[in-house]
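In response to reviewer comment 3 from the previous cycle, which asked for concrete evidence that the modeling workflow produces usable outputs, we include below a single protein chain processed end to end. The sequence was submitted unchanged, and the resulting structure tokens are shown without manual editing.
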Amino acid sequence: VKVADLSDMIASRMEKEGLQVLTTICNAFEGSNLDEVDLSDNAMGSKGISACSSVLQGQTSSLKRLSMCNNGLSADSMDEVADILTGVSGDNHENSENTSCICDNLTKINFYNNMSGDGGCKAFARILKKCGSSKALSDIRFSGTRAGRPGSLHVSEALKSIADSGSLEKLTRLDLADNTFGTEGAANLASVFSKCPHLTYVNLRDCILNDEGANAICKSLWSIGAPLVHLDMSGNEITKNGSSNLAELVEDIACSSLKVLHCEENELSSRGIVLLALALVGESDCGDESQSSSCILEEIRLGMNECGNVGGRALIGLASADKLPALKKICLDNNMFQDDVAEELVNVYGEKLEEMEDNDPDEDIDEDYDSDEDDDGDNSDDGQKDVGNDVDLDDLQEKVSKMSLNR
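The workflow returned the following structure tokens.
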């Protein structure tokens, strides 16, 4: 036996019985040289950690993959987990540098929906730094944390530290959704991504990246040439001013690797949506126009982005011109398409389009965009053109209207 799936074993049981079950089963695997342990979906406080400690401590030289998701781990419980994984007892953390431990062999470490707050982030940062010594990590998930800015910065700084040492070169999956990184944390993550050339999956949903952070991260991912298959930048308050580097990144990988793009619950507006639409056919002003092979995207989520008719027509142009031949699903709900545009979106995308029950057709959100364009400042601090500000809507609409002529 190399894999122990011990998830969801004690649901609905009284505490005493649940702990007995957990202890008995975990003890059975002590010293089994397991490669993988999944303890997810078991409610664990300090007593639960003690009950399952044998299945972890007994695999010091063999354990490679660990999942502890939806365990209800508090900050204190996360600290106990960190002690087990790093081979450190109590507060003697500073003497752990040369201690052989579970972290030395881990390639996958997944913690999700434990809501352990800032204290849990600090404990996870301790785990990450110890894992960095092996340079073997390929899959990191630390999401659903309910952490504030201080805790999230602990995590981003730990990631940057081990990336700077060359310990994340094998990383392919990174899920940090529902952290509170802000601009400072985003700068740390951008530095991390610049040293992760093999990333295929990135989830940064609800991380409060804002335009500056999103631009830095997308530029870093583009520069390293990561072969992303799944990218989620949803819920980060990204406006049209933060869409240029996102569009450049999407344009670069839409025909080679990217299959899932989630960028909902932002403020891209029609200008940002149009720029993304043009990126998907290799015609944005920020990329290489020579790249025009077929887009391989299978799923797109752009709901709740304050997008109006201009952006809607750009998306209609994509479908009408058969520019998304691999598409299986698209979500555009919670935008502001007027009835004729919403109806045409349904016509061209058919069953691929999720229902738009919360579309708001009553306001022409694009009516004042020409005047708004003059009010926006250039947020770029590296000399790069911010197409989100400088875009000419009439020119973009003309390009979109020509899409159907290129079949």
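The longest helix spans residues 149-164. We consider this sufficient to address the reviewer's concern, and the full set will be provided in the supplementary archive.
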